[in-house]
Amino acid sequence: MDTFQSTLKLQNIGFRQTTDLVGHERVVRVAFILLDHFSLTTLSTAMDALATGNLINGDTVYRISTYSLQGGLVDSDVGVPISSQRLAAEGFNQDAVIVVGGQRVRLSSSPMLRRVLKKVACAKGVVAGCWNAAFYLADAGLLEGQEFACHGDSRALIGEYFPKLKACTQDFAFGHRRGTCANACSALDMTLALMQELGSRSDASL
């Protein structure tokens, strides 16, 4: 099966607004960690917000990369594979990390993922999870004292593993550099909140 390629990712760069800071833009590194059978719609929604930010905001460049636990091609929920780098804590330097879950993602603790999330959090980066990936933020101890959002189908399971945590009634939650969302639609709101936190304050109005 054909895979998504990155050959077009710089084709629209000429449409970016010009600024006096050309060559001196703030670079924000955003890593997506793809779980097996992740939601492709959720990933594309979040990536689209970042790509749009690159096109219309001359002050911030969002540099996107994709990772997975095994590296290589990762199957999405619709069977379309996405290429990824193998996740490793050593040398992993990102301003934000978004774990992409999905309806078909099987939740289980991962020491490597836990280590990476803690590393980003300790460096004052943003740590976020989509769909049911709040499980992994909770597993890393990063949701204590704040509410989280997740898909309704996973709420009971996350509550069973982490009974002291509280799920919110909204589709997304963002605060203290932690973000969670319940579905592909709310991934847009969560990503805009992330962009406002790390990039330009005007990014939230994209």
Concise account of the structure shown:
With 206 residues, the protein is α/β, with parallel strands linked by helices.
Which terms summarize this structure?
eight-stranded mixed beta sheet, 206 residues, 29% helix
Blueprint of the fold:
Blueprint: E1 26-34, H1 40-56, E2 60-68, E3 72-75, E4 81-86, E5 96-100, H2 111-122, E6 126-130, H3 134-139, H4 152-161, E7 172-175, E8 178-181, H5 184-198
Parallel strand pairs: 1-2, 1-5, 2-4, 5-6, 6-8
Antiparallel strand pairs: 3-4, 7-8
Helix pairs in contact: 1-5
Describe this entry's structure for a reader.
With 206 residues, this protein is of the alpha/beta class. Helices cover 29% and strands 22% of the residues. It has five helices and eight strands. It has helices spanning 40-56, 111-122, 134-139, 152-161, 184-198; strands at residues 26-34, 60-68, 72-75, 81-86, 96-100, 126-130, 172-175, 178-181. An eight-stranded mixed beta sheet has the order 3-4-2-1-5-6-8-7. Helix 1 runs parallel beside helix 5 (184-198). It starts with 25 loop residues before the first strand and ends in an 8-residue tail after the last helix.
